[in-house]
Specification:
CATH topology of the largest domain: Immunoglobulin-like
Shape: rod-shaped
Order of helices and strands: EEEEEEEEEEEEEEE
CATH class of the largest domain: Mainly Beta
CATH architecture of the largest domain: Sandwich
Radius of gyration: 32 Å
CATH superfamily of the largest domain: Immunoglobulins
Number of strands: 15
């Protein structure tokens, strides 16, 4: 009897996960001391992913946190310095494939000044306008802050300082040029 060698076929299975690819091409602009939030998303690949800033640096005050399944990266925080930040974010998928995208994020300065928006009830009669007065002391003395009569019952005081409390009153002026007494006082604290 003749024997034949037994051939054993070994089948190797490989899993093709595809390659991870970052799909977020740009990130939003931010402002100093204002909450920033953005997300970098991916497609393909097999988790867990490893995220890195591969070049440059993100805005100061902004942190990077992978999502719970690591498929996306969240940027959040309060930027502390204005400027343009250029950086690259890389993600490496299970299996070693890496995807990298470069970003440029502009962080704008904080608003240059604070304002106080005032409004009051109109006065009946032949009123042609109002004058607005301000003081740093409750009860006055008050100084007029409008250069010409205010035609509406709205006024924005843009000459205020942060950390200061102001007290406002208004007067009404009729078509004869007569001015009323002061209105009730309104208080405004500027953060």
């Amino acid at each position: 009897m003749k024997t034949f060698p037994l051939a054993v076929a070994v089948l190797f299975c490989t899993f093709a996960y595809g390659q991870v690819r970052i799909t977020t091409n740009s990130l939003p602009t931010g402002s100093v001391n204002t909450q920033y939030a953005a997300s970098v998303a991916t497609v393909g690949g097999a988790i867990p992913f490893v995220w890195t800033v591969s070049a440059g640096s993100v805005p100061a005050g902004v942190t990077l946190t992978p999502s719970s399944n690591t498929r996306s990266l969240n940027l959040s925080g309060d930027p502390t310095s204005a400027g343009t930040y250029n950086f690259s974010i890389s993600v490496t998928g299970h299996g070693g494939h890496t995807s990298t995208v470069s970003y440029s994020v502009t962080v704008q300065p904080a608003p240059s000044g604070s304002t106080v928006d005032l409004n009051w009830d109109s006065v009946p009669g032949n009123i042609v306008g109002y004058n607005v007065f301000r003081s740093n002391v409750h009860g006055g003395p008050y100084a007029q802050i409008n250069a010409s009569l205010v035609a509406s019952t709205l006024y924005t005081d843009s000459s205020v300082d942060s950390g200061t409390t102001y007290y406002y009153v208004t007067t009404a002026v009729d078509n004869q040029g007569e001015q009323s007494g002061y209105s009730n006082e309104a208080e405004a604290s500027v953060p």
